[in-house]
Design a protein that fits this description.
Elements: E1 6-10, H1 16-27, E2 31-38, E3 51-58, H2 60-63, H3 73-76, H4 78-88, E4 92-96, H5 98-108, E5 113-117, H6 120-123, H7 130-141, E6 145-148, H8 151-158, E7 166-167, E8 188-193, H9 202-215, E9 220-225, H10 231-240, E10 247-251, H11 258-263, E11 267-270, H12 279-286, E12 291-294, E13 308-311, H13 319-327, H14 332-346, H15 349-364
Parallel strand pairs: 1-2, 1-4, 2-3, 4-5, 5-6, 6-7, 8-9, 8-11, 9-10, 11-12, 12-13
Length: 366
Amino acid sequence: MEKGKRIMFLADINSVHTERWVKSLTKKGFEIHLFSLSSKSTNWQDDCSDFHYTCFGIDHSTVRTEKKYGKLSYFKARKDAKNMFLKVNPDVIHAHYASSYGMLAKHIGFKKTILSLWGSDVYEFPNRSIIHRLLFKRVVRFPAIVCSTSKDMAREANKWVNREFRITPFGVNTNRFTIAESHSSEIVTLGTIKSLENVYGIDRLISLYSDFRKHYSKESHLKIYGSGSQKDTLKQQVLDLGLSDHVKFEGYVTDDALVNAFQSLDVFIALSRRESFGVAVLEAQACGLPVLVTNVGGLPEVVSSETGVIVDDTDPSKWTKHLLGLVDNNNKNESQQASREFVQENFSNEVCVEKIIQVYQDVQGI
């Protein structure tokens, strides 16, 4: 194995982001050894060479809990993680997510450690209690290099820990997410692909669509892909607004069906109340879709003036006007290409993986 190419991942084996990083890095010649707190519930690992993994086996619900003491079982995994480190003897440790895997990395204590911040570990975890805040500070101060998927998240983390943060976004497979060969329906289809939770503003999307229909004379539909705790409340909202014949809840979309879901839309909308980055917005643009997003979190970083509209989160009165402008765009072909080129040049897998590889090279020189 070439020196500098053996990486120990501390990450959730079931995360689609872990899957994408592992596949991209092994294709670049890296050997990845992953330690996951969760038990394996997916099969993507079977087709991945130069990839080895160990699962500690904590129940998935425990891993995702927000209870103050719900993650104490993490501490029981420290011995196994340290033993794996000693066995693998990696060139670099790369921990993904501060409030769990970052703690394991801190316990291992390897000098050449990288920590990637993902989202709720920054926006939520430090705010839960003084104990959570102290843990966050300890974990984020330790690594040689700390990465953030967005500039906004780096600014948020900097409120607690004053240090440099590298911006390393999640990449998009632009060979997979492509413009549909044909989409000639006369019916305008708006939509989103997000979890049905309050933070993602699906209720705001439904209200926007209701107002949009009052100003748009042609036929239109709204597709909502995703599952979550707000499903019944959102369906009742649709019923109360008299939109049942025009709004369709498509349910959870599998990874295999994701591209087709994007390609079924004419405009992608993300009216999130909080968002650390915006992978779905990038995937939509890679498929040639114009996007409408709120100016929160990392969303403004993944949209350009040529690919969509960033609306004021606090002023819904202007959202309909901007949406009508996207729908009535007469230069659809040019818009599609601009959206796709923006992602290819700034957020493709190739671009983002090279940023991580540069971080690996830098940490080994420390």
